[in-house]
Amino acid sequence: MERVRRTFELREDLLKSAYELVPKHKKRDVIELSLEEFIASRRQKDLTDLRGKISFHENYENGYKAMRDGKYQDIEGVVTE
Known about the structure:
It contains three helices and two strands; from the N terminus they run αααββ. It is mainly α. The chain has two domains: 7-49; 54-81, no CATH class.
């Protein structure tokens, strides 16, 4: 993983608050963690934009539950183990 040196100003109160939540780490670690969590949060938000745009097979609910219980239910509703 490539590292790049950057110099910039940060609000001290934000850095201090973040540092209190992740004690015993370097400031660089806190900033990297913050960026990773920010990116993950935005990607998750992008997934929520898909709500209502994906259609599932009419038997999805029953098939999902069967697969969760270790059984397989095909499209016609036949259960196999």
